[in-house]
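Worked problem 6 (solution included).
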Amino acid sequence: MSDSIDYGKLMHRAMRGLIQEVLQDVKRDGLPGAHHFFITFDTTHPDALLADWLKERYPSDMTVVMQHWYEGLEVTDEGFSVTLNFGDQPEPLYIPYDAIKTFVDPSVEFGLRFESSDPDDDELTEDDHEAPLVEAEEEGARQHDAEVVSLDQFRK
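Solution. The predicted structure is:
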């Protein structure tokens, strides 16, 4: 038994459970209203699956958008798979929950950011929300700014 409770790990598990539940609802009922997601994930995660050309273009992380067009959404306890359109080229992806860095729904100004255990990465900076955006949706879509919730402010 550990000498302390790892609240950070527990919070991350709960936040990933929230993402899983949201995606299960979307699989069942589709995206309601104006809801859409910007999902930034670590492309180097050993269980992430994406086309080689996407890995080459985004060697560390990439942001995908689930909005107007997506298909084949499958949700498991470990992650989700979905086919998104990259410039009229459908590509299947598999994203493990623990590869997700941010999950944002700008339609309701909701966001989650998963902090790394690297002490140098603990500070949220102006540039943190500017990960490369891959518009995996209808052409002409724009990135919207949304406030990302950082749980560090609640740590003591």
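Discussion: Residues 118-147 have pLDDT under 50 and may be disordered.
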